[in-house]
């Protein structure tokens, strides 16, 4: 565990050195936005946004993990620090999910393919973060239980237990919102795919019938030909009603 903590400390030091590089990339990227076309600028802005989000999340994850390790190796003060950092992180995730839930509640907006795909990507990123932090939650909960069991003060032990129960319920609530958003986006995407397939099938049917209709030319001729053409038209009309 000490080796892991040392490795994380070294990595955090490296991140400090990389901070200037990130700033430089952002500065150059923002300067380039004015010279790009609208579509190119949109793509560049999107990539810069993803870079900064991942950079921020990576820093947060490292610091949370470091705090958890320090809490395990040191005093209960460090446990409270780790617990608070996890609570803060969970609060940020809850806020992001709440915003996404509000956005995806608009059924008209869900029909916008670009927005829907962006929201699907955002949901996947949040889901991945939650999955990655579940072991951290279990570790913090275990440390809290061990710390509480070793305390002489019943009041402090109760306070720790209450905090653990509150964060556990918050975790359940956040997971529930994430599941709801994922289901909503999945259903919207499936509905879009269904509509696309239906339209594609309809276009194919129209093209086939157009070719068949041209093959019926000229209209008339022998009685048997006229009857055959009439039967064909009736079949087409029935298919159109389906």
From TrEMBL:
The protein's matches in SUPFAM superfamilies, at most eight in alphabetical order, are given as: Spectrin repeat
Membrane topology qualifier: Peripheral membrane protein
Indicate yes or no for the key word Transmembrane helix.
no
**Per the UniProt entry, what are the Gene Ontology biological process annotations, in alphabetical order?**
synaptic signaling
Which keywords accompany this UniProt record? Calcium, Coiled coil, Cytoplasm, Cytoskeleton
Database matches in PANTHER family: DYSTROPHIN-1, E3 UBIQUITIN-PROTEIN LIGASE KCMF1
Q: What is this protein called?
A: Dystrophin
From which organism does this entry originate? Strongylus vulgaris
């Amino acid at each position: 565990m000490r080796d892991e903590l040392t490795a994380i400390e070294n990595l955090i030091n490296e991140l400090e050195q990389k901070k200037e590089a990130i700033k430089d990339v952002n500065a150059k990227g923002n300067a380039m936005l004015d010279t790009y076309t609208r579509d190119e600028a949109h793509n560049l802005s999107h990539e810069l946004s993803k870079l900064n989000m991942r950079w921020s999340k990576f820093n947060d994850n490292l610091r949370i993990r470091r705090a958890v390790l320090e809490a395990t190796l040191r005093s209960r003060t460090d446990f409270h620090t780790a617990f608070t950092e996890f609570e803060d992180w969970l609060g940020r995730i809850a806020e992001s999910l709440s915003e996404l839930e509000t956005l995806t509640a608009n059924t008209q907006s869900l029909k916008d393919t670009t927005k829907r795909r962006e929201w699907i990507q955002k949901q996947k990123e949040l889901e991945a973060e939650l999955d990655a932090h579940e072991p951290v939650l279990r570790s913090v909960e275990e440390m809290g239980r061990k710390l509480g069991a070793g305390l002489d003060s019943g009041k402090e032990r109760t306070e720790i237990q209450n905090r653990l129960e509150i964060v556990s319920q918050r975790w359940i609530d956040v997971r529930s919102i994430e599941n709801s958003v994922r289901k909503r986006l999945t259903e919207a995407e499936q509905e879009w795919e269904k509509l696309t397939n239906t339209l594609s099938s309809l276009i194919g049917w129209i093209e086939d019938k157009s070719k068949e209709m041209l093959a019926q030319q000229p209209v008339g001729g022998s009685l048997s030909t006229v009857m055959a053409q009439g039967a064909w038209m009736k079949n087409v009309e029935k298919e159109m009603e389906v």
